[in-house]
Amino acid sequence: MSLENDQLDHMAGRPWIYKVPPRCPQCGYNLTGLTSSRCPECGATSQRRQLEQNASEVTGEVYRLQDLNDVPKAGLRVAIVSGAMMALAITCGFSGLGSACGAIGGFLSFGLGLSILRTMRVPREALELLKEKPNYALGVGVGCLGALLIALSIIIP
User: Fold this and answer.
1) What average pLDDT is seen over the chain?
2) Which residues is 45 bridged to in the sheet?
3) CA distances from 131 to 5, 66, 68, 116 (A)
4) Do 86 and 50 lie in a common domain?
5) pLDDT in tens, 40-99
6) CA dist., res. 150 & res. 152, Å (int)
7) Which phi and psi (to 5°) does residue 43 adopt?
8) Domain check: are 99 and 119 in the same one?
């Protein structure tokens, strides 16, 4: 009789060391407390190594997202400075330079603002590990401000 890896893992009784719970690789169902290697939600089977690798990747992503609210704040600063430079250049008669400032600042602030949406690929309970919750309103607002700067740089050549 041959035992499979998941049966050996279950027999070994190793504790779960990750802050995020084990999730089914197919449907994302929380597998905490299950003794079977089969997901009760979708029926997919998984080995402990797969679950640990997935939890490790999610934990790494949460670690990278720790200071995520700082990115839209930087985008807001970029939008304010480039908008001011755009207005100053246009006022001084350098509309081409103003359009360039608006376009560059707009693209930067658009990308920096909407980077907050990276949290959408992390499970909800993993987001609870962040020291501060993602500020979606700030991120989307900065993204819209960036889009406005891009539109103004096109309209005012």
Assistant:
1) 82
2) 38
3) 36, 7, 10, 15
4) no
5) 888 888 787 888 888 878 777 777 777 888 899 999 999 999 999 999 998 898 988 989
6) 5
7) 85, 0
8) yes
Q: Which amino acid is at 80?
A: I
Report yes or no: 140 and 116 within 8 Å, Cβ to Cβ.
yes
SS3 28: coil
| Three-class DSSP category at 92 | coil
* pTM (two decimals): 0.65
* Contact by Cβ (8 Å): 127, 19: no
Q: Which domain holds residue 84?
A: 70-155
Count structural domains, the chain. 2
- Whether 89 and 115 map to the same domain: the answer is yes
Give rounded-to-5 percent helix, strand, coil for the chain.
60, 5, 35
pLDDT-based confidence at residue 24 (cuts at 50, 70, 90) = confident
Answer yes or no: are the C-beta atoms of 137 and 70 closer than 8 Å. Answer: no
Give me the residue label for tokens 């041959």: 2
